[in-house]
Amino acid sequence: QVQLVESGGGLVQAGGSLRLSCAASGSIFSINTMGWYRQAPGKQRELVATKHSDGSTNYADSVKGRFTISRDNAKKTVYLQMNSLKPEDTAVYYCNARGRLRVWSGLEDYWGQGTQVTVSP
Predict the structure, then answer these.
(1) Which residues contact 98 (CB under 8 A, 6 or more apart)?
(2) What is each CA distance from 59 to 6, 9, 35, 75, 113, in whole angstroms?
(3) Fewer beta carbons under 10 A from the terminal one: N or C of the chain?
(4) Nearest to 69 by CA among 88, 93, 90
């Protein structure tokens, strides 16, 4: 019922930039938090950045100062501006939204299918 669609991944050289976007659609009542997670081959999925509806943000230490998360609440869209990319940033990046399907329901996590980001040395 809730769909998240990511775009903006690709191949970039170290030091370059990419901008990811993710749009939520469906009948979700409210979205508390939107963010990005990533998973490299053989590794666990890890948090990259999140942004709460009140504007507060959370970043992984490894991306602080390089990545910026933003939201357009009217469009139900979250963005991730990635600068000064490093080879270790190579991963599949997944969009996440945490919200309520109904006003009386609890919080649930929704996930996009992922977009590949590859950073060459």
Answers:
(1) 31, 32, 33, 34, 107, 108, 109, 110
(2) 19, 19, 10, 22, 21
(3) C
(4) 93
Q: How many helices (H) and strands (E) does the chain have?
A: 0, 11
29-76 residue pLDDT tens:
899 999 999 999 999 999 999 999 999 999 999 999 999 999 998 899
Looking only at the bridges linking them, the beta strands covering 10-13 and 115-120 are parallel
* Residue 67 to residue 59: CA distance in whole angstroms: 8
| Cα(28)–Cα(67) distance, integer angstroms | 27
Residue 65 — left, alpha, or beta (φ > 0 → left; ψ -120 to 50 → alpha)?
Answer: left
Tokens coding 40: 């490299």
**Pairing state between β 67-72 and 10-13:** unpaired
> Do 67 and 58 contact (CB within 8 A), yes or no?
no
User: Helix or strand or coil: residue 63?
Assistant: helix
Token pair belonging to 72: 């357009």
CA distance 119 to 103: 41
